[in-house]
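Collaboration report, partner site 2.

Our partner group contributed sequences for two proteins of shared interest, and the home lab folded both. The records are reproduced in the order in which they were received, starting with the first partner submission.
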Amino acid sequence: MDFPRLLRVKQHFPDRRLADVRASVLAELNTSEFAGRVKPGGKVAIGVGSRGIVNIATIVRAVVDYWKSKGCHPFIFPAMGSHGAATAEGQADVLAHYGIHEATMGCPVVSELEVVSLGKDANGIEAFMDLNAFNSDGVMLVGRVKWHTDFAGKIESGLFKMMAIGLGKFAGAQRYHTYAYKLGLEHVIRSVGRQVLASGKILGGLAILEDANHNTGQVTAVPVEIMEQREEELLELVKSWMGRIPMDLDILILSEIGKNISGAGMDTKVVNRSVHGLYNPWPGPKFERLYIRDLSDVSYGNGVGLGMADVVNDRLLSKIDWHPTRINSLTASTPAAIRTPIHFPTDRECLEVMMPTVGKLDVSDVTIGWVKNSLEISPLFLSENLRTQIKTNPILEIIGDPEPMSFDSTGNLTNFIADHEKVSAH
């Protein structure tokens, strides 16, 4: 089969990166009134999640140093629901892989799964909180505000979700997703978040916003009194920064998925898929077929998201640890997200079976896009038959001449990965 030639394309997203992330965090916290909620000498629990947040170790260390400067004794705890295979050791290991451990943070990292009940709301939804956090003199949350991979709302992923599914640990995550199946996840997140705020244990939150280049674009200290309203405003802002694949495609290729990239393995609103199996459910570019080549090494075997693909490479399947994958998917009530798609041992075979399935008799008309993952969508490869659309888009720049899709002797693609850093530096 003849494959179209590829164009290397740079997306020129606005660069919103903070010049000094640590200084920005400290400036935000020093203008907040968080420290006034804890007496000097108090124990402050800092909740940290499990996503691939850029600069997360720098940000958390700055938060630790802020509390130390106020005469408090901070400690860090994982606020990540069922991640890390829903074990205390696994969750501590996730943080350690992000550079968050006692040696780098200058304070203890306390990872346990015990929780306390905070009571129930009118719908019978019981709220939980990490026991060590509850027994502290106050809890501060550090988390990224962004769109959620499973639903659309005014509050999606952020501090409220961390108060619910994060602070509730595995026990809470199981129950909340069960209620969400009927009531909706936004409803549950808001309800549990309000119960957690009513406990009086939350000191405030630090919201992290990232730009389309995956840079830290803003850090905002969020007081408890306006946390719900402020998170709505921050989500609306960061949605306006969202980077997208620039056009409809017949075939979208992702070199990797992983929990470090997105809670669903890939950002569903970038690849336009649903964890429940729907094709193109979100506004934006549409993709007829989705091919996934590999699993990120930093996903540590968690293959959540593979079920959203049409075809996957055998190398991805060989890396999956089904124990954490099943726990994570079933806890979230998303079994479709871990179904095993059609799979073949080589990239060539995977692409050859997909190209005739997009409704085009002439395969030379098939449009293809290729990105590293759903976070790193610039640079990307686009098939040469998209040249006219590329040239009419002011944020796109073609880099160099078209090149053939290059396969090695085993039938696997070689273009993108080897040249990724070089193209990124252009």
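Second partner submission, folded after the first:
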Amino acid sequence: MPPEQPRKGLAARLGALAEPGYRRFWIGSLAAVGGIQLVQVGNGWLVIKELGGSGTALGLVGAATAIPTIIINLFGGVFADRLDRKKILLATSAVAALLLAAQAVLDVTNTVRLWHVVAIAVGLGLVNGFDWPTRNAFFPQLIGRKHMASAVTLNTVMWQGTRIVAPAIGGIAIAFTGTATVFFMSAIGFTAMTLILLTLSAPPVPPRPKRSIAKDLGEGFSYIWRTPLFRVLIPFTYANMFFGLQYITLMPLFADRFDVDSTRFGWMLSMMGIGAVAGTVAANRFQSGKWLGAAMLGGTFVFTLFLMGFAWSPAYGISLPLIFCASFFNAIFLVNSMTAMQLSVPDGLRGRVMGMHGITFSLIPLGGLMGGAIADALDVRWAVFASAVVLSCIAAAVFLTQRHIRGLDGRRLRADRPA
């Protein structure tokens, strides 16, 4: 049977928005993800500029979210495959809104301390552990398979687009009203997600035999190990996040290095988002093409070269185009690898497998913890440069040794259906 011919251009990228349920879910997710981006801006400025924290303290806040997220993510995937996914998302969104509202109140009353920020970060990490695998298992219930690649692209545009807008808004809000406003806005974003979820309905997932959580986890691990695509791409994505994207956590230290105010710091973060959105749009050219695998690995390698340049950039103005290019090429890997996995995983395993993949995003702040320690001992430039060198070596090794990843064909992925 010949592979389905994908639609071209804007219609192919936005096709999933034709589904009313997914459209509402995407809008609600946009509000929640914007809140997540604002929290990162607010915490970075609060810890470094207002609480007098160091690079290690900044990394500690990130790790406080990442570690519980990693631990819970595995079990979150099991629950996403067992329970009503909409109810799980309602609970996680409501709890996140309450935690962020509490942080905003502490900040606006000038009673916030570093341990408050860390404790709330731990709470958000526990919430994220259930939220991420459930979110990635839920949205495919709202669309047909023909819209899967479109939905993955739209989800990525949502994440990367908020990285453009949210830091700029956050930087301006901090400059004029302080960090508390940023945390209130984040709480409002998750409240909007909660209200939109109440309006959604999705077809139920077919019931599965009742087994122990350990057996369900084992089934997920076994599937990943037996499937070459997941066995390589998930650990490689871990490396990409830990070594490559740790610089996101360390950006306040670069703002200190360039001696910029909160508004210009916001524009530094926005430049990452602009590059990532441009890369997401460019990635669409490879999703249905013969060179999907080569584009993913090549994009990662080029990303590391620009990241090395950014690490040693001598001036604020020079750093902006470098960080734009780095984000552009990394987005090509992230979008296409996520599309390949979502098209390949069976729905009955989606929550567990994507939960294990979801650990990737928690490795960014853990990499930041390591990078923050290196920055305190040596310099933030050495922290980012050394990590970029490590990732470039990993990307080269995967390209040379993993022919099935290097030769991944997007046309065949669209045509095949997971068992």
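Feedback sent to the partner group on the second submission included the following. Residues 1-7 have pLDDT under 50 and may be disordered. The CA atoms of residues 30 and 158 lie 6 Å apart.
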